[in-house]
Automatic annotation (TrEMBL):
This is PEGA domain-containing protein. The chain crosses the membrane at residues 27-49. InterPro entries: PEGA. Keywords: Membrane, Transmembrane, Transmembrane helix. It comes from candidate division KSB3 bacterium.
Length: 266
């Protein structure tokens, strides 16, 4: 019992004005919570209902009335194709028209005597005789040169046409050789000169030996002298093999033809 007396409650006489109350900090937390919830609610309303609808490429939104409210209905629209650059047309390839090939002309040059140097437009192209030398159509300056003598001539060349020209140098002799039979071979001073009838030009003054021959006929030889610039007609009679020469008798006073005079000499 003595121990119980030790733990007896102590009673205090508290005045009635001092009441035990709950602390006020719980109310403040409640108010803050309401404020935060309100803010979040307003943000959600603004985000989902009041925020302007952003247009998405390729999607068009149309507001249609439904139960007194408007809702955004998205309808997909085919995207408008972007304008593409029109390729420029490739430049037309114009084929070059080939230039027409001009037909050439042909030039034949001879000289008396032969072997003269020939120059065309100042350039040496050969010696006479010059046969069928090709040139473009046009006018050309042709020069002949022989033993110090020079002669110049303008010649016109026509496309596809032959042009011939012969120049005789001054101071040279010529022989016109014929025989009683055509086609006889003629040699002058031992060199073949051609067949009868034959015109030999460009001979220097002096003596020449003419030999005429033909198969089945006697060979005939004749010597002639020519002067500067002189021209002679020579007629040579040839006889068949096996025939004898008969003397010719002249009974007329008329001038003898060269062939008759030659016949009498033979």
């Amino acid at each position: 019992m003595q121990q119980q007396d030790k733990y007896e409650p102590i009673l205090y006489n508290l005045p009635h004005s001092q009441e035990i109350r709950q602390p006020k900090n719980h109310f403040a937390v409640f108010i803050c919570s309401l404020i935060i919830v309100g803010i979040l609610t307003l943000f959600a309303i603004w985000y989902f209902y009041l925020q302007p609808t952003q247009s998405t490429p390729g999607v068009m939104t149309t507001e249609l009335p439904e139960n007194g409210s408007s809702a955004a209905v998205a309808s997909k629209v085919e995207p408008t194709p972007l304008p593409t650059a029109t390729p420029e047309p490739a430049p037309a390839i114009v084929e070059a028209t080939p230039e027409p090939v001009l037909e050439k002309g042909f030039l034949t040059l001879r000289s008396s005597p032969a072997g003269a140097d020939v120059l065309i437009q100042g350039s040496v192209i050969g010696q006479t005789p010059l046969q069928d030398y090709e040139l473009e159509p046009g006018t050309y300056s042709v020069t002949f040169s022989y033993n110090g003598q020079t002669f110049q001539q303008e010649l016109v060349i026509t496309a596809g046409e032959p042009t011939e020209y012969t120049h005789r140098f001054q101071g040279f002799a010529s022989l016109n050789i014929t025989a009683t039979r055509s086609g006889c071979d003629v040699k002058i001073n031992g060199k073949p000169a051609g067949r009868t009838p034959l015109l030999v030009e460009g001979l220097s003054p002096g003596s020449y030996t003419i030999v005429v021959s033909k198969k089945g006929y006697h060979t005939t030889e004749k010597a002639v002298n020519v002067g500067k610039g002189e021209h002679q007609d020579i007629v040579i009679m040839i006889r068949r093999l096996g025939t004898k020469r008969q003397p010719a008798t002249v009974t007329t006073d008329r001038p003898l033809h060269p062939s008759e005079r030659l016949r009498n000499e033979l």
